[in-house]
Each structure stands twice: as structure tokens, then as C-alpha cells.
Structures
1.
Amino acid sequence: MKLSVRVKTGKHTAKVERIDVTHYEVHVTARPEKGRANTAVLRALARHLDIASSRLRVISGHTSQSKIVEIY
């Protein structure tokens, strides 16, 4: 399953907002440096979806605010 994720970095609090079945907006406190924000996004989504973060991976948008994340 693929999820479309819009990321907002450098926020004071981390949160996940579900827009619809496959679209999410994720706020993370991490800055987009050395992949830290991507890691934070995957952890936040994993907590929200109640799955292991190892089951998620960014397949598109590694350096963009718009990402495609795959659950496998």
C-alpha cells in the first residue's frame, strides 16, 4: 500500500493528520538534515498506524515535502 504524505519540518510538536485513506500530513520536530526528518516521519507514521517503522519506506520524495511512503 502506498501513502501520499505532506511533511512539515521544524514544528514544536509532532503530529499526524489523516486527510483521507491514503493521504496524510505529518508534522515533525526534526529539521531536514542528514535524513533526520525522513526518519522522524516514518516513526510518527508507524506510531499512528500501529505498525513497526521497519515496515515503512520512502519510495519517492526523499528531499521533498511531498513523499510517497510504502507499507510492506
Note: The longest helix spans residues 36-49.
2.
Amino acid sequence: MIKLAVSGACGKMGKRIIALAQQDSDFKLVCALEHSAHLELGTSICAGINVAADNEEIKNCDVLIEFSSPQATISHLEQAIKFGKKVVIGTTGLLDEEKIKIEKAAEKIAVVFSPNMSIGVNLFFDIIKRLSSKISGNYDIKITEAHHVHKKDAPSGTAKRISEIIENSGKKVSDVKSIREDEIIGDHCVIFSSSVDTITLTHSAKTRDIFAAGALVAAKWVIDKRNGFYAMDDVLGL
């Protein structure tokens, strides 16, 4: 059984990760972390587990799943290194210097880092990678992403990753449009347009469970891995 810690435990993602983990006999929740001013601090999140702000509790887990703020993620990462714990990071809005810290941490512990833990989205990434490498340079490429009004970062981490994939193939993205509207879970559209045709690729998330389930798949995968920096394509063998 994998002893699990979840950071950002009272957020929308954290709650779904905990709910799905409780339905999976491979997991036992041992730690639920939130920031020290959170209104739910000290309350019960499930049987025997109260929401805590003490980072030292990370020592009780096998794997830490991070869906918190960039600052909290880096702080918790330091504790994970201290106690030799595996980490799965789905936090978005990270600065380049924070990403470098994550890569450095992976020299000491096993880290899975992805801006989107959804299995479907990572297959979407793979399709975009294949298409971008095959098409000519005559295509104008645009990305549109849409999320709920509460999302703080724009463009989304997923849109940034799509841009990286396309640019790594030697192509350029001419425009990235971000929409914040209603309670949209997450929609991403990539349009490849030329003078003779248009290719449109779209992924729409219907529930946050796709991200939560992917994070738990990553937690199971990383449990027996050596120190290193891994992505979801490693987890999925893409």
C-alpha cells in the first residue's frame, strides 16, 4: 500500500485526488496539507486525517502529490528531499527559476512533473508532436485555451506545453489565446491553417477526475523509480 500525502488538499483538485485515492486499495492517505491561513485547517478531510500546515508531516508518506501554489510546491519539495520522498507535481504557474529548482531536486529524489496529468491530454500532446514534425512550414499555428474564471495563470500550463512541443519540432506558434469564462474545466484547441486546408485538434475536459486519476497513476508509477526528472510521457510510455 502506498502512503500518500496531498498538498493543496482542500482545493478542487486536491479534494478529487483524495476522493479517488480513498476508492483505490493501493493508497492510504497519511497527510493532507494546506497553507497556514486556510479556513479548513484542523478540520477532518477523511477518517483519521485532519488538514495540516506542518510540512514535517511529509516524512510519513511514500509519495507526495502537489497541486498547490508555486511557493508551497518549492517549500514542500525541500521537505521531500530532506526525507527522501517521491513527488508528483501538477502545480501550474511556476516561474522558470522554480522549474530549475524542481529539476535540481530530481537529482536527489524521483519527481514526476507535468502541467497536465490527464492521460487523454498527454495522448493529445503526442498527436500534436507527431503532426508538428510532419507538416510543412506553410501552416500558421494558433492555440486557444479556455478555463473557469477562477484560474489565476494565463496562458495555462497545458497551452505553454503545447507551444513547447510545436516549437521543439521547428515550427512556430503565431498566437495563444486565453479565455476565462464560467466554470469551464479545461478546453484546448490547436489550429494548423494553410492556404489549402485547416487541421484542428481539440481536447475538452469534462471533469477534474481526469487530472486526479492521472496524478494517482503517476504516483503508482514513480514509487519504485530511481532519482530523476520524469514527465507523464515517461509514465505512459509515449
Note: The helical segments are 12-22, 70-83, 96-105, 119-134, 157-168, 209-222, 232-236.
3.
Amino acid sequence: MAQWVRVASVDELKQQNPLLVVLDDEDIALYRVKDQYFATDDLCSHAEASLSEGDLKGFLIHCPRHGGQFDVRTGEARHFPAYTPIRTFPVKAEGNEIFIEIEQD
């Protein structure tokens, strides 16, 4: 069953500065591009590096380990050596709060 879970306030998430959030032992990277919000798995599908520690340039998150790139809107791998997409999560902002939709048992 899907459920919306509060993960941060709008003030906590700065432009182009990813934020790591942990939900039920699951690491999720949260992004703000202009006034749009996105969330993906935090681990790079190539080298298991933390994407929340990478550089966000526009809609592309750059893996800090080998430079693979992913589109935070779709999870699509956009630059070698990454070729496997990462999971994305629906995100919404209500007032000053940011929520991610996740599946829960």
C-alpha cells in the first residue's frame, strides 16, 4: 500500500544541494531544482556510491565515485559508466513540508 511520508521541510532542502533521507533503513536522495522536488535511490547503480554526496547540475546528479550521471526526474542513466537506471519516487510539497510516496507493508 502506498503512503505519503514527510521527509523534510522546504527550508532544509537547498537548490542543487542533495539531501540524504532514511526511511525504514532505505537511503533516499532528495533533490531541489528550481522549485521542483525529486527523489531517487541514494545508491549509484554502478558503484554503490552515495548520490546525495554527488554534484547536482540541472537535473543530472553526478556520482562522486566514477562520474556516472542520472536524470533525477526519471532515474535514467545518462553517462558512462552508469547504464542501469535508478528508482525514483513521487514527491510533493505541501506548504513548507516535502513528502515522498513509498510502498509500505
Note: DSSP finds no helices and eleven strands in the chain.
